[in-house]
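ok so I'm stuck.
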Amino acid sequence: MVPLSYYLILSAVIFAIGVLGVLIRRNLIVLLMSIELMLNAVNLTFIAFSRFLGSTGGQAMVFFVMAVAAAEAVIGLAIIIAVFRHRQTLDPQEMQLLKW
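replied:
not stuck anymore, here's the structure
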């Protein structure tokens, strides 16, 4: 049986990679993928604790996180496509749509 700490370390590494992707990259598609990576790291933590504690609460929470992640991906990609058609770029620094 794999110890809980292995799952938590893997989850922390995946979450750190997602945070680095959000902070370093300038492409909106990569930003969305990094956010999805962070959500999956949290899902791994929920499942690990759920299995360790012997309850199903973590698995139920993962279901809701996956539903929110799917909605975020669909709406986020729709917004990105609309902005790209208008501005012809995916660089967030060049998009000044919401500024006064």
